[in-house]
Amino acid sequence: MNPGKQTANQDDPEVAAITAEIEELRRLRETLRRYQETLENALKEHNLQVEQIEKNTEKQTARLAAAHTSLAHQYQVEVAKQHLIQTRKQLSTLDD
Known about the structure:
The chain is mainly alpha-helical. It has one domain (about 5-95). It is about 95% helix and about 0% strand. The protein has helices spanning about 5-10, 15-95. The radius of gyration is 40 Å and the shape is rod-shaped.
């Protein structure tokens, strides 16, 4: 390239403005890349948290189901006891 022409282009205000815009666009592109990386990392972290919450919810659901089954069994045992007591009372009145 002609050295005289290169100096002339560098001194041209339009070329300088375009060069400045190109540099600004490069900085903006890098900033956007960093923002995108930050957002991707935040999304990964969020997804891990959601996964952990889902696991905890499954565990809680299993515990609640087990507790419900246990309570239902206890209730059935109590009803059977009460029925047995009533039957014994009725039988004892018949024996008298």
